[in-house]
Amino acid sequence: MTERTSVLLTDLYELTMLQAYFDQGMNDTAVFEFFVRKLPPGRNFLMAAGLEQVLDFLEDLRFTTSELDWLAGCGRFHRSFVDSLRDLRFTGDVQAMPEGTIFFADEPILRVVAPLPQAQLVETRLINLLQFQTLVASKAARVRLAAPDKSLVDFGLRRAHGAEAGLLSARASYLAGFDGTSTVLAGMRWGIPLYGTMAHSFVQAHDDEVAAFEHFARSYPTTSTLLIDTYDTEAAAHSLLPLAKKLAAEGITIQAVRLDSGDLGAHARQVRRILDEGGLPGIGIFASGNLDEYQLAELIAAGAPINGFGVGTRMNTSADRPYLDCAYKLQEYADLPRRKQSEGKATWPGRKQVYRSYGADGLMAGDRLTTVDDAAPGEALLVPVMRQGRRLANVPVLNTLREHARAEMARLPASLRALTPAAAPYCVTVAPPLKQLAAEVDRRIQK
Amino acid sequence: MTERTSVLLTDLYELTMLQAYFDQGMNDTAVFEFFVRKLPPGRNFLMAAGLEQVLDFLEDLRFTTSELDWLAGCGRFHRSFVDSLRDLRFTGDVQAMPEGTIFFADEPILRVVAPLPQAQLVETRLINLLQFQTLVASKAARVRLAAPDKSLVDFGLRRAHGAEAGLLSARASYLAGFDGTSTVLAGMRWGIPLYGTMAHSFVQAHDDEVAAFEHFARSYPTTSTLLIDTYDTEAAAHSLLPLAKKLAAEGITIQAVRLDSGDLGAHARQVRRILDEGGLPGIGIFASGNLDEYQLAELIAAGAPINGFGVGTRMNTSADRPYLDCAYKLQEYADLPRRKQSEGKATWPGRKQVYRSYGADGLMAGDRLTTVDDAAPGEALLVPVMRQGRRLANVPVLNTLREHARAEMARLPASLRALTPAAAPYCVTVAPPLKQLAAEVDRRIQK
Questions:
Q1: Which of A325, A373, B2, B159 has its CA 20 to 30 A from that of B312?
Q2: Nearest C-alpha in A relative to B329
Q3: Chain B within 8 Å of A339 (Cβ-Cβ)?
């Protein structure tokens, strides 16, 4: 669904390794898994996201003639290797947690099983796609937890890190429970509901603030949201009273006002009082301006009369935790389980599955990380999503995934729903068969 | 140079405002400026970047038929307005600071002068492009200040926020003084030097670590960098000694080793000793792994024998300060200067220029922010870059901009070169004519 991204949007080492694999004829089946090593400090859970774009990427994987020509001419690669790339396609299998699934450290959310060069080549872009949407969905889920009953709109395109980040953060935040976005392309592409108000420039371009409000309301007779903080918020609210009455006589209603600066709670209370006393209780109050889950929680705890929030920059840059300590690691090659043992970065070897248990209350009660052939009790979280390079028909559309995310959030234990760090982290047990496998691999490596 | 991005990658309000402007026939000349309201805490300066992509965007601005059809069918816009978009092009003028220029709070780095609908429509994407590259260039400049004599390579594509962020952070970090990037597409597109090593998977896919090293060295007889921390760093360094001698007999040399985990300084010292005592002083040491300017400064202060660094995630997400408090604001419409007065977000009105003075030592000595018609002494930092929608021939290529950035860095006063906050911020004076203009605008608004 996203524009095709050049296969050369990758790290050079993927290609230099591919040439060395080619030189050595290393083409056996490799198993890579993507996982997060540690949750970011203060985060109690993560929400998987980005799979749809990964599957698009894998289905579209190919080198164009101009890319091959550039590779052949760049001085690093020999002709027979470059020629071998011409027909390279992704022909592997993928298992993954559905988008919207809650997950924890060390749990793979995606597994690729493919010939080594294919599975290696996709590493960089696959991490790039999975980390970003997972980061934003996880942040947006926290914003939703802070404001369960409010209208929440993604306003973050302008300060997202580039075009794709802006577009995909609209998707990831909607997945995680936002009501919509201001990003038009996300509406066109995925049918995400669009919301928009007006900018200060609209007010400034008029010589008179009330004229700006009237013009906008006339263009949008039932859906206008007027930005009232350009000069003096309360004065603007007062000026709406006669305007709203005049417009009402013509059947034009003002839907809401937006506050974007100062003490949002204090302004909201004053504006609410002005509007209510002026006989306009139907006009809603929408707030924006450097908001995140912490500020929403504070405003709501203080009873600020705000109906909805535009949440941007801090959500879609995940400003307090702008990256995940994630990796895509080789776990098996040529039928042998593998692991790296680097300090602080050792991995669990082999093909793994996560089994989740639920309590009598329906809430998540613990996960078991184990080998795929350990038939543990609980719900298996990784499911097949692609076979031989073709996506399976069971991969759901965005609105279905959003329902799944909502169901997942409803099953979060209370301790994990808090914005503060849980006293005890969620219990993920590494099962004995996996520990045994790791010990076997260590013994083999040390030989 | 980047792929065309849909004009619908914008906030809905740009389009709703455009329809209201259309309904009111508001089509006079508007002047918008992009600036940063406040430097991020702890940052002593910023480096302007992203102009090339802005000019590409403005030159390519148009609605496709399918975009127009979607707009006409989405239920928010009337036919005559949508029809008016068919021939919309950007026909305005742009002045800007060249990329690589050092700038400070409140200083416009770009001014758009165009009919109101055009100047308004471009707001979202223009901020999106300028903030991100400026953010990364400014961070990368700090990394370069921390390690003036080391090889610095952008390794951050995988954890950048999406495809464009990955690609553009290669460009922005190169502009700011990095030596190159691992992002292949950035090499193809801008000729940025490419660097790459190998991943742990390459070592893991072999049953024997030394075999992995040998295979890689044979594929790259003079340029191999071997990753030696997959199992045991010092053991791997020892294993290189006989391998290097064997390969040397065939004319194959190992260029460097890479460390990616643990205490990089301690490992570097041990590995350096092992290689030197083993007669391999020519093999360099390259380090990576969650590095930023602070860690580089520490490693270098401690004398760690590291020749180069791969700097990724924390640089290209600008992890400690992942966004800029920036804006693109209407400063004039229909020949009248404008300003917003929102709490904490008031702007300086009118068309502005920044004049920079230099001391006898050649270092930057202070800026004067003033109106364009105030012929102040010093170097005028904003220059024309686009006229009537066409970029001017004077816009330099990346390598020239990089030289400019280097010259700018050389003119930074010592207090601003520190990674810690300067005791006194750089002096930016708001000149009397600008203060006077602001007072006049305030008097007009209050009438």
A1: B2
A2: A201
A3: yes
* B159 and B214 co-located in one domain: yes
Q: Which residues of chain A does B230 touch, with a Cβ-Cβ cutoff of 8 Å?
A: 340-342
Contact A343 B261 (CB under 8 A): yes
User: B344 and B311 in one domain?
Assistant: no
B132, B162, B203: residue with CB nearest A128: B162
Q: Tens digit of pLDDT for each residue in B121-168?
A: 999 999 999 999 999 999 999 999 999 999 999 999 999 999 999 999
Contacts of B151 (CB under 8 A, 6+ apart): B179, B286, B307, B308, B309
SS3 (DSSP) at A340: coil
Can you give the pLDDT at residue A1? 37
Instruction: Tell me which residues of chain A have a pLDDT lower than 50.
Output: 1-2
| A317 touching chain B per CB within 8 A | yes
Q: Residue B3 falls within a domain, yes or no?
A: no
Domain total of chain A: 2
Of the pLDDT bands very low, low, confident and very high (cuts 50, 70, 90), residue B2 is very low
Q: In this predicted complex, what is the ipTM? A: 0.97
**Closest chain A residue to B219 measured between Cα atoms?**
A20
- Say which amino acid occupies A227: L
- Regarding whether A115 and A193 lie in a shared domain, the answer is no
Within 8 A of A313 by CB-CB distance, chain B residues are: 323
- Whether residue A20 contacts residue B219, with contact meaning beta carbons closer than 8 Å, is answered with yes
Chain A residues within an 8 Å CB radius of B342 = 200, 229-231, 260-262
Question: For residue A274, what pLDDT is reported?
Answer: 98
The CATH number of residue B342's host domain is 3.20.140.10
Which residue range is the domain that position B338 belongs to? 12-137+323-446
Facing B15 at nearest CB: one of A124, A184, A324? A184
Supply the pTM of this predicted model.
Answer: 0.97
Q: Which residues on B lie below 8 Å from A17 (Cβ)?
A: 198-199, 201-202, 216
Domain-located, residue B379: yes
B194 to A12: CB separation less than 8 angstroms, yes or no: yes
Q: How far apart are CA B253 and CA B246, in angstroms?
A: 10
Residues in chain B within 8 Å Cβ distance of A11 = 155, 157-158, 182-184, 196
Distances (CA, A) of A45 to A125, A324, B366, B434: 24, 12, 48, 51
φ, ψ of residue A68 to 5 degrees: the values are -65, -40
Closest in B9, B158, B188 to A70, CB measured: B188
Last residue of a domain, one of A276, A293, A316: A316
Query: Do residue A211 and residue A224 come from a single domain?
Result: yes
Interface of B with A in 128-167 (CB under 8 A): 128-129, 131-132, 135, 155, 157-167
Is the CB of residue A207 less than 8 Å away from at least one CB of chain B? yes
**DSSP assignment, residue A77?**
S
Domain membership flag for residue B84: yes
* Within-domain flag for B4: no
Contacts of A69 (CB under 8 A, 6+ apart): none
User: Is A35 buried (19+), middle (13-18) or exposed (0-12) by CB count in 10 A?
Assistant: buried
Can you list the positions of beta strands (E) in A292-363?
A: 308-311, 325-333, 336-337, 352-358
Chain-centre distance for alpha carbon B302: 29
User: Cβ separation of B23 and A230 shorter than 8 Å?
Assistant: no
Question: A56 CB near a chain B CB, below 8 Å?
Answer: no
